[in-house]
Amino acid sequence: MQKRNGTIQYFSMDTFLGIDWGGTFTKLGLIDKDGKIIKKTSFSSLNSSQPDDFIKKISDNIKKYKNYNIKGIGVGAPGIINVEKGYIYYLPNIKGWENYPFKQVLEKRLSLPVFLDNDANIFALAEFQVGAAKGVKNAIFLTLGTGLGGALIIDGKIFHSKTSAAELAHFPVVKKGRKCGCGANGCIETFVGNRYIERKYKMKKRLSKEVSVKEIFKFAADNDKIAREIINEFVWYLGRYLAGMVNIFNPEKIIIGGGVSKSLHRFKKQLWDHIKNQAMEPNCKGTKIVKAKLGNWAGVIGAGLLVKEKLGR
Amino acid sequence: MQKRNGTIQYFSMDTFLGIDWGGTFTKLGLIDKDGKIIKKTSFSSLNSSQPDDFIKKISDNIKKYKNYNIKGIGVGAPGIINVEKGYIYYLPNIKGWENYPFKQVLEKRLSLPVFLDNDANIFALAEFQVGAAKGVKNAIFLTLGTGLGGALIIDGKIFHSKTSAAELAHFPVVKKGRKCGCGANGCIETFVGNRYIERKYKMKKRLSKEVSVKEIFKFAADNDKIAREIINEFVWYLGRYLAGMVNIFNPEKIIIGGGVSKSLHRFKKQLWDHIKNQAMEPNCKGTKIVKAKLGNWAGVIGAGLLVKEKLGR
User: Fold this and answer.
1) Is the ipTM of this complex over 0.90?
2) Where are the extended beta strands (E) located within B146-294?
3) Strand, coil or helix: what is B195?
4) Chain B partners of A165 at a C-beta cutoff of 8 Å?
């Protein structure tokens, strides 16, 4: 790194390009070896069901950074991935990507190494390397957003199988429940995903306008009875499910990210009480619930760090 | 190993002593480095709630093998263990062992290294090293007996946290269910553990005499309607739960051990159908359901192999 004319010159140092592919926006950024963002941008990905168009958008954006010494590209994608091959099985909320050889196509186009993983694993990697999960051996990572994202840190590594795994959202928690996006019914996602909570509130209140989970949390704190009932139910199911997960993993930390984590202070104690009352005592001993640290650009940081890790830099 | 007077002489080779501590019987055996049993014995452990008496029984039995070159002692215990310290938190079905420093006491008494783990982890270790799970990277291991035992093989190792983990049996699968031995309610164990199935059958049939799950499986095959209903429900819950586990782990194998595994041929296809219908397709791709191989002495073999592994032999 050299100083030239008073500005810092990054062009000679190694950088890693991270892409956080979301359902609404795709964020893209260059990070340095410490996970710091040097440059960033974002574009709408509402119409990303045409692979050719989406890949062109990505490569046009990357070309803007051509003066940087980019070592590789990391991508967090919202779906089920074959991580070894960099292959997309499918994206539940974006059609058109079934069995798509993403890594292969992008590497050919950009002549740079490409690494692909599920978005929740990428968030967890960022929090693990430079955020709230630094140094843990075993942790459960949940992103509470529109749906439920999940990842596991096991023995100091993000857990992977042949698929991106760990699909924590699709565990059935009732005998028969609402249909889930995955095709099954009664998955934990259908009790804790924003879209389900918002729909329930709108229905019970007979509202026609949209309402966000953040608002529902606020209404509950302001003694709106229906909001309170709905939030209590949300926390109850999340706690019951996490008691089961704690019995399996005895994690040091449960890290909560995603939009709902902004309201964590409102339900953390109640959530912990539900876990403690239902989990086996030695297995929840030492477990802490913490908020994810890295905010909106965590996915970009994680995707960049994935490249760094894979290239052994 | 030398031959003397026509008999094989084991006294000079390394051996490992394995103890499988069960609720009814405790089995004890010497194994060689390949996991083969050289000597074995068993004794009743129905009254093992007096630590001093039980430890005396163990050491008296071990003394019989004093001519063998025993390198250490491994123990699979039916409860929650601190594996690092060889410490028992508690045994759900045997009182008197709360917070007991088992490793420390036994090492002092026998002047040999002692290693302690949960019994299900020990079964899984045996199957992993010399049985049905040889060479797998990720697998789920279930022992279907009186209760439900569980272990995970993750990234080619038996998963442990600070506690013995993975307590797979205590995951809630309904909103509100029967009280479970762990203190919570609606855990998967309360739907698939023998004691619950047998109780249900006896109640529905208004039987006064005891009946085993093996018999209930047989009755179901012979068209006993109530037996069929109960077995169908058992397989349904097991499949639904395993679909959730498959979504998390995308395991190569699901290994079924314990008494019920003897009837696996009667329900394997139905079980797989339930899993396949509810799990995400890429996550159950390549997964196979297999029967544990090592039978009644698996726990002794695993406990012996634990010693070998820990001592790096």
Assistant:
1) yes
2) 148-154, 157-158, 253-257, 288-291
3) helix
4) 247-250, 283
> Of A89, A166, A285, which has the smallest distance from its Cβ to B249's Cβ?
A166
Task: Give pTM, 2 decimals.
Answer: 0.93
**A251 in reach of chain B (CB within 8 A):** yes
Whether residue B74 lies within 8 A of chain A, CB to CB, comes out as no
Q: Read off the pLDDT of residues B96-115 as tens digits, 9 standing for 90 and up.
A: 999 999 999 999 999 999 99
Q: Is B85 on the interface with A (CB under 8 A)?
A: no
pLDDT of residue B202: 97
B178 touches chain A (CB under 8 A): no
Spatial neighbors of B52 by CB under 8 A, at least 6 apart, are none
Taking CB atoms and an 8 Å cutoff, what residues of chain A touch B90? 282
Task: Tell if the CB–CB gap between B280 and A82 is shorter than 8 Å.
Answer: no
What is the pLDDT, as a whole number, of residue B181? Answer: 87
pLDDT at B9: 59
Q: In Å, how far are A28, A32, A59, A68, A154 from A65, measured between CA atoms? A: 11, 13, 10, 6, 35
Residue A68: CB partners within 8 Å, gap ≥ 6? A10, A11, A15, A30, A38, A39
Give average pLDDT by consecutive 10-residue segment, chain B, 313 residues: 52 92 92 96 87 94 93 96 94 91 96 96 97 96 92 96 90 95 94 94 96 95 96 98 97 96 95 97 95 95 97 91
Cβ distance A161 to B90 less than 8 Å, yes or no, reads no
Closest CB from A243, A249, A285 relative to B166: A249
Q: Answer whether B183 sits within 8 Å of A248, measured CB to CB.
A: no
Residues A91, B282: contact at Cβ < 8 Å? no
Closest residue in B to A168 (Cα–Cα): B248
Q: Measuring CA to CA, how many Å separate A74 from each of A18, A118, A184? A: 5, 11, 31
Q: What is the DSSP letter of B100?
A: B
Instruction: Fill in the amino acid letter for B19.
Output: I
Question: Which ranges of chain A would DSSP assign to H, the alpha helix?
Answer: 51-63, 102-110, 119-130, 189-192, 194-205, 213-221, 225-249, 264-278, 281-284, 298-310
Residues of chain A with pLDDT below 70 are 1-10
The answer to whether A182 touches B280, Cβ cutoff 8 Å, is yes
Angle among Cα A254, A194, A305 to the nearest 5 degrees reads: 50
Task: Measure in Å the smallest separation between the Cα of A93 and chain B Cα atoms.
Answer: 14
Interface membership of B61 toward A (CB under 8 Å): no
d(CA A269, CA A280): 18
The size of chain B, in residues, is 313
B245 to chain A, closest Cα gap in Å: 7
Distance from CA of A239 to the nearest CA of B (A): 11
